[in-house]
Write a structure and sequence with these properties.
The longest helix is centred in the middle third of the chain and has 14 residues. Helix 1 packs across helix 2. Helix content is 31%, strand content 17%. Strand 4, helix 2 and strand 5 form a beta-alpha-beta unit. It has a three-stranded antiparallel β-sheet, with no helix packed on it. The chain is elongated, with a radius of gyration of 19 Å. It is of the alpha/beta class.
Amino acid sequence: MRGGTIARVLASKSSSVSPGSYVTATAGWTELAIMPAAEVQKVEIPSNGRLTDALGPLGLTGLTAYFGLLNIGEPKAGETVVVSGAAGATGSVVCQIAKIKGCRVVGIAGGEEKRRWLKELGCDEALDYKSEGFAGDLKAATK
């Protein structure tokens, strides 16, 4: 099955990736893969990060959030950003970037537990789309 992977390089003929280093690739679900060096990306994780972050906030999820919000949404400090699916992988990164940019963030997710988590994440408002008063809550949060 196709999919993004994190892999430890066992052997390499390329000077760009050395044995023992970690890379991301679209190698699929397999125990071993032979990949051209041009089809892998070396993983560089900050000291406070985890290797698995390369498939999440430091990978395609983070890139989607970053470029989607900043290049498409172009938020300005002081504006309100509403994020549907805010408790998901991409949405949660969007919320954090929007806060860094000085925006007021309204996160939308399903359930009280996710709503509480969004408040911990830093959302100014966290709404539960499953609540009976959701439409009114959204209207009030976006005035």
